[in-house]
Amino acid sequence: MSAANIPNFDEMMNADGTVRPAYSDFCNWYEAQDRLWLKRQDAEAERFFRRVGITFNVYGNSDAEERLIPFDMIPRIITAPEWRKLTKGIEQRVRALNAFLQDLYHRQEIIKSGRVPIHALKDNDAFLSQMIGFTPPGGVYTHIVGIDLVRTGPDDFMVLEDNARTPSGVSYMLENRQTMMAMFPELFTKVPVRPVSDYPRRLARSLRACAPPAYSGDNGERPVVAVLTPGIYNSAYFEHAYLADQMGAELVEGSDLRVIDGRVAMRTTTGYKAIDVLYRRVDDDYLDPLTFNPASALGVAGIMDVYRSGGITIANAPGTGIADDKAIYSYMPEIVEFYTGEKPILQNVPTWRCSEPDSLAYVLDNLEDIVVKEVHGSGGYGMLIGPTASRKEIAAFREKLKANPRNYIAQPTLSLSTVPIFTKAGLAPRHVDLRPFVLVSPDKIDITPGGLTRVALKKGSLVVNSSQGGGTKDSWVLDE
């Protein structure tokens, strides 16, 4: 997607060429550095990522190749006042998402009110009938949430999408910071940056706070937390292993688990040990072959029965994927107001629901100028990017839309903000988004200061997904 003709907001530079206050300390430091040394540090960062093994798998290719996550060493910087506003909006949205899920699986008052139509749930695979009438321990559905934000102006942050099922990328946020601190330790003495390194500890604490009724703690022991991974061939396996290690939790696969005496237990060198909280990175359909896909070998037979009887907490709760649905996303302004009684602090990107005849007609007439997405799509796949699509691609997508309009939403081509990246020729602006990570427990919403900044490394591109050639950079929230 080309952004060459779309004016955008540059987060570092004013229109007159002066540096914005957020970047002043960093720029003073940068200008004082030797350029050859900076180039050597840039190369060293890549070698560090290779040594650590910070990679992801790309599906859809014949060899499902493993790639290095591209990293840019110029930080993306957010001021304390900007972050305060963002956290208020993120917290409001996450509270609304959790209330929405609670309502959907119980009284469905928002459906009865007409704010969200019944067809948004009907025949939606992400809505699980097995969760109807059941409340997860502590009333928490979305234990870990990633809210994708884009910026289009000085005070204009908008939500691009919600990730309430199994949001990924937090390990890259942590490794980006660790890499920056290793390469430029003196820089952190000159710029007051809020830390993110305690995220694993906060994650473990938040998960333990959601322990199930079966947890007694009679012996003073903490709730047992484990991370369920599909295995080494999963695209986010590095993150699964990293978080388990950092939390001091066991990394388990389905074959390591079994149901014993009404509990889910993991195999250890001294026998099986009951798990209280399972941070699962396995999709709903593969979680329990007795309840969902009978062919699954990734989950645990009977875990849903244990879950419903109060024997384990599953994070995130099964069925939260309905909140990731891009058609549901289009109703988020109404959802926020319905459950909070407040206007949304963070706005949605304008969205056309192709399930509605008038919207579909508009989208079909303007395919060359807009972006069309699958309602369950992710990773930049299954999209039509009108401004760069060929006539043949647009014609083919037009037929897909006509055949199944409910499977798509459309949005205008946004003018994403730019931040600098390091190139051989010096600093150059590139488009970015931001995924802050949110931890939810029964009595607290904890938002990590910063998040994962994804950057479109190609000049003029708006596609930031790593699977589509994008990279990442460290996100700095300045201290007060």
UniProtKB/TrEMBL annotation:
<protein>
    <recommendedName>
        <fullName>Circularly permuted ATP-grasp type 2 domain-containing protein</fullName>
    </recommendedName>
</protein>
<dbReference type="Pfam" id="PF14403">
    <property type="entry name" value="CP_ATPgrasp_2"/>
</dbReference>
<dbReference type="InterPro" id="IPR016450">
    <property type="entry name" value="UCP005522"/>
</dbReference>
<dbReference type="InterPro" id="IPR051680">
    <property type="entry name" value="ATP-dep_Glu-Cys_Ligase-2"/>
</dbReference>
<feature type="domain" description="Circularly permuted ATP-grasp type 2">
    <location>
        <begin position="75"/>
        <end position="456"/>
    </location>
</feature>
<dbReference type="InterPro" id="IPR025841">
    <property type="entry name" value="CP_ATPgrasp_2"/>
</dbReference>
